[in-house]
Amino acid sequence: SSQLSSLPLQILFYVNGIYYVFYFLATLAMIVYKSQVFSYPDDFLAPDLAVLFLMAILEVPRLYLGCKGNLMEEEAPLGLSLGVTVGSVVLCVYLLTWQTYVLWADVILNAVLLCAYGLESGLKVMAIAVFVS
Amino acid sequence: PADTRGAARERASSAPAPVTDVARLCVCDLLVAQCDANCCCDPDCSPEEFSLFTTCSIPVVVGDSRLCRQKAAVYSLDVEANPPERIFQLIDQVNPSIFCIHATNYKQALYLKSPEMPTPENFDRLLNEFGSAAFSAEPEGWDVDPEAPNPPDANETHSYEYGAPVQTEDAFLRLPSPVVSSWCSDANPAAFLVNQATKCIRSVSVDKCESIQGLSMLFYINSSILAVPKSSQMVNVTVQSIVVQSLDGRRTLLEGGDVLRLPLALDELCLNIVLGVSYHITYTDTGAITEAAAAFVLGAITKEALSVQQSFQITFTQVNTKPVPLSGNPGYVVGLPVRAGFRPQGYPFLVEFLTNRHSQLTIMQSTGSQDCLAAQGARAPVLFGYNMISGCKLRITAGMKCQPLAQTLLDVLKGQRFPEYVASFGNSQAQDVLDWVPITHLHISEQKIANTLQSSCQIPVSLGIEVKWTKYGSLVNPQARIVNVTATLSTTTLQQLPSGRERIIPVTSSVVFTDISSPAEPGYKAWPTINIKLPFDFFYPFV
User: Fold this and answer.
1) Where are the bilayer-spanning segments (chain A) (predicted)?
2) The whole model's pTM is what?
């Protein structure tokens, strides 16, 4: 077929968007829970919250550029989205390993998100290869 | 030396490392090098001692139970085996909750923080952060350094407050008092409005008596007192009177007693040394000192004297008032003297009572000699709430005349001027005649029935004063009020003795305070009533 856009990638973007909303609310709620139950001084709480919000801010252009690139079959936005994904991956790894308190639920959420990012990145690379050629 | 100091500082600045290995932690191991009973984790116990345990007081030693996976030391006793033995297992404990802590990057999250060890460098910072106002290096307000710049709060109080040290031009008014030991310390300041009396011992020697500062009058009056703190208005300390005490203790008031008399070493004596100072400070109601006077007791010491006891006193009086010591305000305070007085003779109606500063109800004071006839009239004031009993022994010999003996005993028991009225409140004023309670006198005579027809002479042998008081006023702050005072005099017949014989009879006087308060009844406010009345002209056109 003449359609070059990747359907699995589009489905993944859609699912990622919904999952990310759930992920953001859950992580924020858990940080609030941790600050009440454990000893969470302010200078440890601030970086964790900053990372979470930064990740949320990055997610929106990432998904938008990815969708746009995929649907318009252009590789530039898709490549840009891939770059932003790298940043998101770094932040996700921070929340997985370098957070002040890493609960088991944190591990599960971040691992799922990392898998999603990894799968997305793979599909994006394949899509770029298809668009370029 | 520099290395050892540095090493010592290193050692001192870190506390011992906390033990976090569960296999080595044992909370029940309290006795060092001894086996604790039923403590299965105690390393000092041998297997024989384990076989004597009945149960393990601590079955599990774990760290924070919120961790997802952690090591736990489990101790148990196998009672089936013969002999019973202790089982120690190191297992992995898993927390199934989804919110268990998988990892932390914050070291103090799971352990108590080791406190910072104080060193000479960080001591001041730690004291500011954690210290409370217990001791400060210098007391505030004692800045006697004239070069210090004017403090910014120059508009502060220009008056003395209660308890503030009375300042003089060089430091403060000294009231030497014993600190820690009985030796006089000259660094005790007199506090404003705090009436104090202190006694302390000062070491003396006849050779140096002229140079010891604390023995000379000049030391106590040379610096003038500041009228208000930090002002330039001075009040000179005047010499009110000088009493000279001789070596045998007799005191005489010196005429023209406002001349300064400095210590004088003469032969083997040193004269004019200060044995007592009594300051009288007059102040205004705004907290400024207007007058200061000092009354001295000077004495002499011999060559053998190594120390002398000095007594110091300070009293504060407000200007234009004549202070009368109150025994309570308004109710009597336990321990303060019961105030008493007389009604002036010749007045048919109740007028003011005659009381002076020291009009008190007094009771005979027991002396060492215990002889009633040799008693010199020493009397002790009756203190409210304190039951007292005192007595003496009367030696009756043959041929003693009854009537003079009775009069003497009456004087001994009642004193020279036994009061007629007692103040019912601690602050009763002399002009409020209704506030004073008359003393009721009862007379009990022990007459033998056989001698009822003969009117024989009776001698008083006991005086019992019963003071009935009640709680007066509010339930939460009851005030003591004297309601009734009864003085019961018991007399007995003086039996004439054959010559050569003598008898000893005891003579006692006592004071008893009885609480006759009726139980308190709570009073309740009346229920509010609804007071509805129609206006006068409500039915105007018709009525």
Assistant:
1) 12-33, 45-65, 77-96
2) 0.44
